[in-house]
Structures are given as C-alpha cells and as structure tokens.
C-alpha cells in the first residue's frame, strides 16, 4: 500500500519544533503578556557562608552591634571557720588609748579591801592569759577601748573577795576536810555587769591558786549544735530517766581546764584508779590526764569524771593537798527548760538529762554536803538577759531563794508561791529548792555615785571621755544610764563629740554634737 505522505516528510515532521508546554500556575502569574522575556522562575537563594565567629541572622533579628558582657570575677569565699573566728575575736588592747600612770593592780591582798570600792584596778598579765584560755572575755564588753584590761571594784566584788578568803581559812587539814563550799546565783538587769562580776571572781580565784572550771555559754548545751550519746544504763535501772553525754562539749571543757590551770594541774598527781583504758596511758599529772580527753572526744566524758573525782574526792592518808575549785557558769537560765535535742523516740530532751548539766546544777543547788566540794570552793551561776528563754519556774526558784535568804520561812504568808492560775511549773526546776539549800542570791543593780565617778574618771584618763568629771556630770550620766547601769554608763562615757577638742570649738565654726 502506498503512503500518501512521503517518508522524507515524515522525517521532517519528526524533527520539527517540540510542542509548547502548558503554562503552570506559577508561570502564568509571573509572566506578562506581549513580552519576549522568559517567565521568572522560583530562585532559591544560596546560603551565605558563616564568617569566623558569626552566623546568619534569623528572621526579624536585630543586626545591631553586639557587645559581649565581661564575666565578673567572683571573689572566693573565705576559708572554713574564718568568719566565725573573726566574729569571736577578742581584742584586749588599744594602742590609741592613753597609758594610765600609777594604776594599781588587783592582788590577793586588796581584793577584800572596802577602801578600793569605786576605783579601777588593772589585771595582771598572767591572769589575763588564764582568763583568755578559759574563754572568760566576751565580744560585748568594752575591752578594745583601753590600753590594758582593767576592772571596776564594786561592793559585790569585795564580798566575793571576802568569801574566797573565808574558804581559804576553812581549809584546815592537808586533805581539805571540813572546807566550806559556797553557792551563789547572780541576777540583775540587762547590762548590769553580771558577766564582768563572774570574771572578777575568776580573777580572784586564779590569784589564790584555785582550779577554775568555766562554762562560758550555757546555750551551747541546749541548742542542738553538738553531738550527744545516750548513757548505757545498768541492769535494773530501766525505770530511771535516760541520761545523755555530750563528748565534744566535755572535750572543750577539759581544754579550757587544762590550759587555764596549767601551773596548778601540772603539780598535782593522780591518786585514784580510773580503769584500764585511762590507767594504761599512765598520766603523770592531772594536766596530762585532762589533755587525754581534750584530744580524744570519745574519751572526754570518762576523763572528765576522772578529773572531777581527783579534784573533789579525797583519799585518806594522802598527804598531797588539793586546791579549792571555782565552778563558773554563765547563762544558767538556759538550763532550766527543754532543749532542742530529741531522743530516739523523737521526744524532747530536758536540759537536766545531760550529765554535765545535772552535775553542775547538783553542785549549785545542793541541799547536803554529799555533792559539796571536799577541798572547798565556790559554785557561781550567773543569769543572762540577752536572748534568754522564758523560764517561769526558775524565776519562782530565784524568788524563793531570795525570800529564804531574807529569813522568810516556807510557812509564812509572804513566802512566794506559784501562780495557781498559770501553767504548772517545771517540776525538775522547782525541785532544786530545798529548805536546807545554802544557795544565796546576789542581785546586781546600778552603780552608786562614787562607783560611777570612778568609772568616768577611768574613761577620762584613757582619753575617751573628754568632759570634766564633776559632780553634776556624774549625776547627769547616772540618771541617763537608768540609775547607774554599768553597760549604759560605758556607752555614755565612750560617746565623743564630733569636732570637739579639749580647748573647745574654734570660733566661727559650728560644732555638731
């Protein structure tokens, strides 16, 4: 069959122009009619390469200059314990203060002299070192204002000096049998000088070669900041109250005892047997025995019992003389209630459940000679008004002791009793009172006018008080201090006037007081 179209025409037809593709929606939108240019295509922009340290900006991102913030160099925190040491640091000398010429020193001879009342006596150098080791100085006292530590002699100071002399005279035989034991509770308003009065008693005890046991802060025993362990009870003692030891506080007590009484304890030898564990160490002196507990707190409660036995329990036939003992307790009202410690049953532990607290309180409020110091001595407890807890039972106890000291019998209507409409007082605290208790109460009040004058003269001689010490000035300061409160008197004596000199203000210059 013949083709109507030749093959060459078919070939030409196959090689002809390709068909025009159909326009897409995108090309129709981008192309314009009657124009010879090709339709616009969707062009994808090429990513720009990152320059070193830069990046491509994001959508709607600001392209302003960026200034890098410099990292602040934070100072390193102080080492562990540095802040506490700075907070508790005691400064006892001020080189800017004037040196007082002819200042008399406190001695065993003038400690009971009533003629020294109202005068300021300096403390001897060795006594200052002993007081520092015993932690007797406090940061709230004005030791950093003067050239050297000195103390004001009050009438109560003379009374304590007379009591120490009476104890020394009562030591009749070599074993110290028949020596008297005095017990005092010192109370008073805030800043009335109770801690200074306790420091004066410790100074007099050191001068007379006594052994001083100091508890500088009773709050440490009740604030749940030291370790405590239950005391193992013997068979048949399950009905008794559970007692607890405080090893770290016992170790601190032995440390203060060993270093503050180093001269006395280094001359005394042990005379009792204290068990194989302590006797194996073979301590030659009582100081060596005390340092065993100071270095190992696990042995501290047992070592303290051994030291206390050596100082208070005499041995028949022993020719070595034991010195009297002064037990100084500051803040005794912290021991008159519940503590922040808990037992294994999560019950609150009372302060009297600790062995050290129980031992000291039994000595301070003893009703017989069983708990007395066989070699003589004194137990002095001082109350505190700074951050003190509410202890209504102890306040009732103090009122009862004061009434008994004044001769009021328990059967009299004037004898103080508890409020019948108030909460039941603590039986442990009220049980400390007994009609035969020989504890006396000393209430510190404000300074007298002669004592206030002597204190202001000491401030004036040190270059701190710039006004003339006249009777009118003393009366003014005495009235402003609330009747001679010694803490307020020291504040008024140390208050200086800005721009005021000894010769008075300059002419034409306004002085700001």
Q: What is the molecular shape? A: globular
| Strand adjacency order, main sheet | 4-7-10-3-11
Helicity level: 25-40%
Question: Low-confidence parts, pLDDT < 50 over ≥5 residues?
Answer: 498-513
Q: What percentage of the residues does DSSP assign to strands (E)?
A: 5-15%
How many individual β-strands? 11
Largest sheet: 5 strands, parallel
H/E element order:
HHHEHEHEHEEEHHHHHEEEHEHHEHHH
Structure class: alpha/beta
| First-to-last CA distance | 139 Å
Q: Output the number of helix runs.
A: 17
Mean pLDDT: 85
Radius of gyration (CA) equals 42 Å
InterPro entries: Ribosomal_mS29 (IPR019368)
Pfam family, one: DAP3
Main location: mitochondrion
Family: Belongs to the mitochondrion-specific ribosomal protein mS29 family.
